[in-house]
Amino acid sequence: MVSEESVIAEATGTGKFQVRINSGDHEFILDEPVEYGGQATGPNPFDLLEAALAGCTLMTLRLYAARKGWSLEGLRVHVLHRGGEADGRDRFERELVLGDVTDEQRDALLKIAERCPVHLLLDRGADVLVSVAGAPLPAAVANGLHAAGMDEACDTDGQPF
Predict the structure, then answer these.
(1) How far apart (Å, rounded) are the C-alpha atoms in residues 52 and 30?
(2) Under DSSP, is residue 142 helix (H, G, I), strand (E, B) or coil?
(3) Positive or negative CA dihedral for 34, 45, 53, 122?
(4) 60 contact partners, CB below 8 Å, separation of at least 6
(5) Residues 6 or more apart from 15 whose CB is under 8 A from it?
(6) Average pLDDT over the chain, rounded to an integer
(7) Looking at residue 42, what DSSP letter applies?
(8) Contact at 8 Å (CB) between 41 and 18?
(9) How many H-runs (helices) and E-runs (strands) does the chain carry?
(10) Residue 110's pLDDT band (boundaries 50, 70, 90)?
(11) CB-CB contact of 48 with 72 (8 Å)
(12) 143 versus 50: which is more confidently predicted?
């Protein structure tokens, strides 16, 4: 599946770091903590990266559990980001609170967590390119790329988990 999504970031004119993010369907503020010169009016970019992994994991687990008819009361995902050295790799550690599940359910949910779209993207890496726009930027586009990835992650092709 090849698809595109985009966001646009613009300075708000408030504070040193505050930016407005437009994702097509939503707008929100990014900022840095006061101790780093920001105004703490929103999460910082790494907070969003951690949130993307935690949220994607939780959404994917809920989708899979719903397909199996399992109730996951109290499901929570905690993500810890450890920055690597300048030439090293960063590390994301996820801790899942699954509630009352069987050993078989726990094992299946752990396997599904490793298939969430954000986990897969971080695992394989990405190419990041930069260029200068020659014309006004197009509008941000949200088209369900993440939802399609979750659906694919939960499609076990008849496998037991």
Answers:
(1) 14
(2) coil
(3) negative
(4) 112, 113, 115, 116, 117, 150, 153, 154
(5) 31, 38, 39, 41
(6) 90
(7) S
(8) yes
(9) 4, 5
(10) very high
(11) no
(12) 50
Residue 140 structure tokens = 């941000």
Side chain identity at residue 21, one-letter code: I
- 52-63: pLDDT as tens digits: 999 999 999 999
Q: Is 31:42 a contact under the CB 8 Å cutoff?
A: yes
Q: Pairing between strand 27-30 and 19-22?
A: antiparallel
Q: How confident is the model at residue 2 (pLDDT cuts 50, 70, 90)?
A: low
Torsion of CA 47, 148, 155, 75, to 10 degrees: 30
Q: What is the DSSP string of 28-39?
A: EEE---GGGTS-
CB atoms under 10 Å from CB of 110, counted, come to 14
What number is the average pLDDT over the span 84-110? 91
Residue 1 has pLDDT above 70, yes or no: no
Residue 113, Cβ neighbours under 10 Å: how many?
Answer: 20
Contact 152, 1 (CB under 8 A): yes
- Full-model pTM: 0.87
What secondary structure, in 3-state letters, does 116-127 show? CHHHHHHHHCCC
Q: In this structure, which amino acid lies at residue 87? A: D
Alpha-carbon gap, residue 142 to 160, rounded angstroms: 33
**What SS3 state is found at 7?**
coil
